Amino acid sequence: MTPSLNAIQTHTRVNDILLGPLERPALRWLAAHMPAWVSPDRLTVIGVLGAAIILLGYLLSAVNPGFLWLASAGFVANWFGDSLDGTLARFRHIEKPKYGFFVDHTTDAVGQVMIFLGLGLTPHVSFTVASLALIAYLILSVLAYVRTCVAGEFKISYGRLGPTEIRVLAILLNTAMLAFGVKTFTIPFASGASISVSPYDMVVSGIALLLLSFFITSGLREARRLASLGE
Fold first, then answer.
1. CA-to-CA distance for 201 and 140, rounded, in angstroms?
2. Domains in the chain and their CATH numbers?
3. Which of 75, 155, 213, 214 could covalently link to 14 via disulfide, CB atoms 3.0 to 4.6 Å apart?
C-alpha cells in the first residue's frame, strides 16, 4: 500500500467548528436512532438530492421569490445526508475508509457546483460572483484532500468555520433575499462615474475572499512544514 493510500485509510478528522458543540451530539443522537434500512449510502444520496433541491429552489426564485424557502429546505436536507452518512458508518462500525472518502467527496463536489451555480442564476447574486465563490470553495476542498494524503489529517474547519456554518450563512442569505428582494446601491467615484452593487454580491464576495485566504495561509503553512521535514 502506498503512503498516500495509507494516509487516506487511517487519517484523522479535524472539525473544530463553531457549531460543533451542537452538531456533534445531534449527529450522534440521529445515528443512534436511524432505522436499520437507512444506510450511509442512502444518506449520501439524500445529501445530493438536497443540493438538487437547492438548485431547483434558486432557479424557481426567478419566477417567485418564495421558492427561496425551498432552497433553504434543501440546505437542511443536504446537511442531514452529507453530515450523517459518515457518522452513521462509524456508529455501526461499517466504515469503508477509501470507498467512503471517494464517494463522499466526489458527490460533495457535484453538490457544491449545483449550489453555487444555482445561486448565481437567481436575480439576487451575480453569476460571476457565485462562480468565484465556487472556485474558492473547490480549491480549499482540494487543499483538504491533498493534505489528507500528505499529512494523514483531513481538516474541514478553517477559522472555526466549516460546511455547516456555510450552510447556515446561506440560509440567512436566502432569508435576507426573500425579505428585502433585489437590492442595489450606487457607489460614486471622484471622476463622476459610479457603479451599482448588490449587497448580496458583497456578502458572497466576502465569503469567497475568506475561503481564498484560508487556502493561501493553510497551503503556505503546510508547504513550509513539509519543506522543514525534507519531504
1. 20
2. 3-229 (1.20.120.1760)
3. 155
